[in-house]
Each structure stands twice: as structure tokens, then as C-alpha cells.
């Protein structure tokens, strides 16, 4: 994430918005392990799918019931932010995304599994 231009500034305009909410609890060891695994998987998925024109991952939001389109870099930054701070910062949604350019996490997983599995050898006919 880009640095906060108002970091440590006592005149930060955000202070006028009201009291801060409580910080989230620290990430547990299990959550940390899962986030690191997700980041490793994401690197594999991007390396396999970005050259094929896939721009990122689509996630169905349980709160608003709408699909959210995450480019590779945005998803990586969100996971890193969650790992570091215990929560994700709000972000701007993708502008007019083409749904055909995004796939689900499950699709990524299946594609990666298929890419690492050797193809069966064709049997010779006599």
C-alpha cells in the first residue's frame, strides 16, 4: 500500500471524522499460516493465468450480494494488509470490469492442480 501522507501528523483531517474504532485483534498463528499460504497460491495463480489474459479473481460478497473483481495486485495488497494489520482497508472497486477477465479462486486452484499434473501418456496401438 502507498504510505499514508498524513502519518504522524497531528492535523490529519481524519481526526475530524470521529473516534477511532478499536483495533482488530492480532492475527492468530493459524490465520497467519493460512494468509501466507494464500499469498503463495496467489503468486502461482497469477503466474499461470495472467499470461492467458486473466486479470484477477472475482469474489461473491456475502454482505452486498454482488461480485467483487480484484486485480492480482489489489488482491495481493489486501492479503498483505490483512496479514499486517488484521483487517483490509477499503478500496475502490474495479471500474467497469469485464467479468470474462476474472475467475474464481476455485477455478485458479483447479487450473493450478491441472497444470502441475502430468498428462497421461497415450497408449500405443499395435
Q: How would you characterize the overall build of this protein?
A:
- With 126 residues, the chain is an alpha+beta fold.
- The protein has three helices and three strands.
- It has helices spanning 29-49, 72-85, 105-116, and strands spanning 56-60, 67-71, 102-103.
- A three-stranded mixed β-sheet has the order 2-1-3.
- A hairpin with a 6-residue loop joins strand 1 and strand 2 (67-71).
- It is elongated, with a radius of gyration of 20 Å.
Outline of the structure:
The protein is of the alpha+beta class.
Q: Give the H and E element order.
A: HEEHEH
Tell the overall outline. elongated
Strand content: 5-15%
Q: Spans with pLDDT under 50 lasting ≥5 residues?
A: none
What is the arithmetic mean of pLDDT?
84
Rg calc: 20 Å
What gap, in angstroms, lies between the N and C termini? 61 Å
Q: Helix count, per DSSP?
A: 3
User: What is the helical fraction, as a range of percent?
Assistant: 25-40%
Count of extended strands: 3
**Strands of the biggest beta sheet: in what spatial order?**
2-1-3
Q: Structural class, from helix and strand content?
A: alpha+beta
Query: Could you describe the largest sheet, including whether it forms a barrel?
Result: 3 strands, mixed
Amino acid at each position: 500500500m502507498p504510505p499514508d501522507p498524513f502519518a504522524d501528523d497531528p492535523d490529519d483531517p481524519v481526526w475530524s471524522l470521529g473516534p477511532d474504532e478499536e483495533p482488530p485483534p492480532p492475527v492468530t498463528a493459524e490465520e497467519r499460516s493460512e494468509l501466507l499460504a494464500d499469498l503463495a497460491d496467489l503468486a502461482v495463480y497469477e503466474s499461470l493465468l495472467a499470461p492467458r489474459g486473466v486479470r484477477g479473481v472475482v469474489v461473491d460478497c456475502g454482505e452486498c450480494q454482488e461480485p467483487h473483481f480484484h486485480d492480482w495486485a489489489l488482491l495481493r495488497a489486501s492479503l498483505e494488509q490483512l496479514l499486517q494489520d488484521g483487517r483490509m482497508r477499503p478500496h475502490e472497486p474495479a471500474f467497469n470490469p469485464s467479468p470474462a477477465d476474472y475467475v474464481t479462486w476455485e477455478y485458479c486452484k483447479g487450473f493450478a492442480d491441472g497444470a502441475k499434473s502430468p498428462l497421461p501418456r497415450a497408449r500405443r496401438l499395435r
